[in-house]
Write a structure and sequence with these properties.
about 210 residues; 7-stranded mixed sheet; about 20% helix; 3-stranded mixed sheet; alpha/beta; 10 strands; TIM Barrel
């Protein structure tokens, strides 16, 4: 998306500058606002509308990534949503910037890889070309994943699109985690939406938002 002055901007639902619940190592997590898919039981239904979110310029996000790299030693960025491939132009610019600064790129998408490669948007191909790990496929609430870390449901697949990461890395076999942060009067939760955590954001004494993977 471009602002009125022609500057490329992003429609962002949430940013977590440093997380270990959204992929290997410490990562900069960015959730896009807006998704054309409607997976039953979506972890982030508040991120489905393309309206809402926060408009940030690419320069503002670059600055946050640089701060996270310097302060927290992040090894990569993870793009979630919402649907990252519905924001492919912005995502491709982010991925190109991340790669140029030695960072890896991971994406969670509701599209399968085959479906993504058939999308008419040329920016999708560019984004995938700069992605190291793609977790693809719609979230299926009837098939929760219990063995693979960072994966929401059994049907979803992990695609290692470069040789930066490997399928036999034991990190994929560890247990999923949630990260809970208190920011003023707001509780934010990101990571795997385990059943035991469901309802945390509905407590009347808290103003809470959840930012999970699919």
């Amino acid at each position: 998306m471009e602002c009125a002055d022609g500057v490329l901007s992003l429609n962002v639902a949430q940013i977590v500058p440093c997380t270990e619940a959204e992929g290997p190592g410490r990562r900069f997590g960015l959730w896009f606002q807006g998704c054309p898919l409607r997976c039953p039981g979506c972890c982030n239904p508040e991120m489905l509308p393309f309206s809402g979110g926060q408009q940030l310029t690419m320069a503002e996000v670059f600055a946050q990534i640089a701060d996270a790299q310097m302060r927290d030693g992040i090894e990569g960025i993870t793009l979630l949503g919402g649907e990252p491939l519905a924001h492919a132009r912005s995502g491709a610019v982010l991925a190109r910037h991340a790669r140029a600064h030695g960072l890896s790129v991971m994406i969670f998408s509701g599209y399968t890889l085959a479906e993504a490669r058939r999308l008419p948007d040329p920016d999708v191909a560019e984004l995938l070309a700069r992605t190291d790990i793609l977790v693809d496929g719609p979230y299926d609430r009837e098939q929760p994943e219990t063995k693979r870390r960072w994966i929401g449901s059994v049907n979803q697949q992990i695609h290692f699109l470069t040789d930066r990461y490997r399928a036999d890395d034991p990190c994929w076999e560890r247990r999923n985690t949630l990260e809970i942060r208190l920011q003023g009067m707001e509780v934010t939760i990101n990571g795997f939406p385990a059943r035991a955590a469901v309802g945390l954001w509905k407590r009347p004494t808290q103003q809470a938002s959840r930012k999970g993977t699919r």
